[in-house]
Amino acid sequence: MDEVREQVRQRYALAAVLGGDAGCCSAGGCAPESIAVDERFGAGLYSAQDAVSIPAEALAASLGCGNPIAVAELNAGERVLDLGSGGGIDVLLSARRVGPDGFAYGVDMTDEMLDLARANATKAGATNVEFLKGTIEDLPLGDAVVDVVISNCVVNLSTDKSAVLSEAFRVLVPGGRVGISDVVAEDRLTPDQRAERGSYVGCIAGALSRTEYLDGLVRAGFTDAEVTFTHEVADGMHGAVVRARKPLPQPRGT
Ligand SMILES: C[S@@+](CC[C@H](N)C(=O)[O-])C[C@H]1O[C@@H](n2cnc3c(N)ncnc32)[C@H](O)[C@@H]1O
Hints:
Helices cover 32% and strands 24% of the residues. α1 (3-18) packs parallel to α6 (111-124) and α7 packs across α9. By secondary structure, it is of the alpha/beta class. It has one domain (2-245): 3-Layer(aba) Sandwich (Rossmann fold), CATH 3.40.50.150.
């Protein structure tokens, strides 16, 4: 495991133990001493309706930068995968949306987060969910097994973003889609300028620019890619909604 990924794992292991208020994914980073509620990250980004539909512990464990469930517009019966599922909030909300005929998987590399997510699933009484240990660069799932890939403030933490996007493409069925919330930089910011605005483990320094994200999605094979800024999290850096689709095979002769 590379050194940066190990730092990320240790930070989120700590966050799982300390609780969501550790404020890990934030411009201020996640020093345990800086326990603060940051309205740009976490539970405050969910609607009141979503918030009351899951256990309070799952909501409190939110470390995201958006609401990918709203982005992905889930339908009953769909199979969903959440990349970097943390305490499980988006998996549990997805499971409710897709209903008993659908299924929601979460993948996370941090044992402490997986323990927290499984405990939250038990509290929620969710039966159509499974949390798998693995990395988002090498997903522990077969080809073409999910309809939707979601993620909340995790792609920026990866040290191999092209592998993440390729893996998302691989596990999606043709016609499947991604609906991701992430931190994204304006194109004017160099990698050094992004790093001046926050740490890697705090979801800032590792953020792609808008054009880098769009190019990466296209290189992975996606179509209809779009990256829309929703709220500023630091100067020139934004919470953003990322959408794209895995194309259907072209009919013969076209
Ligand atoms: C900022 S938290 C977000 C958690 C969750 N998505 C949420 O919204 O609360 C990042 C999560 O991604 C996981 N993670 C980070 N990099 C990962 C990787 N390369 N592979 C798998 N999990 C990863 C961490 O363990 C952590 O649980």
